[in-house]
Write a structure and sequence with these properties.
The chain is an alpha+beta fold and about 375 residues long. The chain has nine helices and 15 strands. The chain has a three-stranded antiparallel β-sheet with strand order 5-6-7, with no helix packed on it. The chain is elongated. Residues about 1-65, about 105-115, about 115-120 and about 375-380 have low confidence and may be disordered.
Length: about 375
């Protein structure tokens, strides 16, 4: 790059113009210097000598030019565009979220409440859950357990004096009853020894084994529910659960857990030795048979009786898992005031619904099954 300088020779009387000469700077930096680190351009300015003689090379000064370079301007433009796009996307996301919430409506009476998380892994959660069974279906399932127990007792036990000596009867009865039973061991032994009270007492023994082991408070080493579920329920004891908030979460947890475990523990699955519940069922079966065997009718076949009793316990386990899978909350009532008359005993408990499909407490509990009481071996509802 070259810089052309005009040289004037000035006098007091006249101005003599000398021809313009071309001066080539010795280095490029004499005309243009750029400070890349600070983004500032320096432009060479020329000065003209006004004395009688002027140097042909002239004098050069550097001054700052505060204008923005094209690269910086392009960067600012791109950054502004990106920021604007992000803000627009954020506003659009909030509007879509608000619109989706506005479209959500409460579930039907038999349905589940909507999850706060609409989707899980790209799959809508609610349709993946089984819809709750009707109260009538629950009642039918529970009453069926009561019926098969009654049929078993009528078919395989007698009211005659026992054909063998009953050894350690109190200890055997205590093992069956476990903790907090509605009947103490010595009273159970007395009822079993009486001809008129024996069959009701046997019905009570089997029903107590089943119902007490499908409840949420049963210990993992006794429960007929999957032991892993019982351990989780044990860590979520009633004393740690807030009735207003946590019960709804517990209800949803049961429904989701049951859906995930349906292929392993569902009603359609065969309860075999590989099932984690099988060990507890076998232990209960052995303890129960210690109490019942002296009163078995040997003419009907003891092996057949034992196998039928095992099937009853397995059916009870499946019923327990069914109740666990429902979002509602249940209570087993062995002694409902005013329902049990003098001289009778409860042989199967009432089933009472105390929580709705959202896990919230019902102001007036609903009795789905009244239970059964018996006197002298005759069933009475």
């Amino acid at each position: 790059m070259t810089t052309t300088l005009a040289v004037a020779n000035v006098s007091t009387s006249r101005v003599n113009l000398t021809p313009m000469s071309t001066v080539t700077p010795t280095t490029p930096s004499a005309s243009l210097t750029t400070d890349l680190s600070k983004g500032t351009s320096y432009v060479a300015s020329t000065s003209t000598a006004t004395n009688s003689t002027t140097s042909s090379s002239g004098t050069t000064k550097l001054t700052k030019n505060h204008s923005i370079s094209p690269g910086a301007a392009a960067g600012i433009g791109v950054g502004s565009a990106v920021a604007g796009a992000l803000i627009a996307a954020l506003i659009l996301w909030f509007m879509m979220r608000k619109a989706r919430k506005g479209r959500m409506v409460p579930s039907e009476d038999r349905g589940y409440p909507p999850l706060l998380l609409d989707k899980l892994g790209g799959t809508t959660v609610e349709p993946s859950l089984q819809q709750p069974l009707s109260d009538q279906n629950i009642r039918d399932e529970f009453s069926t357990v009561c019926t098969v127990i009654n049929n078993h007792v009528q078919s395989f036990y007698h009211t005659a004096p026992p054909s063998m000596k009953v050894e350690n009867a109190n200890q055997a009865a205590l093992e069956v009853l476990g903790q907090e039973p509605p009947l103490i061991a010595s009273n159970l032994v007395t009822l079993l020894s009486g001809q008129e009270t024996r069959l009701p007492a046997i019905r009570f023994c089997i029903a107590w084994i089943v119902v007490s082991r499908i409840g949420p408070d049963c210990e993992p080493n006794l429960t007929f529910l999957p032991p892993e579920i019982a351990r989780c329920l044990g860590s979520m004891s009633a004393s740690k659960i807030d009735q207003q908030n946590d019960m709804a979460l517990l209800s949803k947890w049961r429904a989701i857990s049951a859906a995930l475990l349906q292929k392993t523990y569902g009603k359609q699955q065969t309860l075999s030795g590989s099932d984690s519940r099988y060990r507890n069922i076998e232990k209960a079966l052995q303890a129960l048979d210690k109490v019942l065997h002296p009163y078995a009718d040997q003419s009907r076949g003891d092996d057949k009786r034992f196998k039928n009793l095992e099937e009853i316990l397995k059916r009870g386990a499946r019923t327990g898992f069914l109740l666990f899978s429902q979002p509602s909350v249940w209570r087993f009532d062995w002694d409902r005031p005013g329902d049990i008359k003098a001289g009778t005993m409860t042989v199967f408990p009432a089933l009472t619904k105390v929580g709705d499909d959202y896990g919230q407490t019902i102001s007036t509990p609903r009795v789905l099954f009244n239970g059964e009481a018996a006197q002298g071996g005759v069933g009475a509802t």
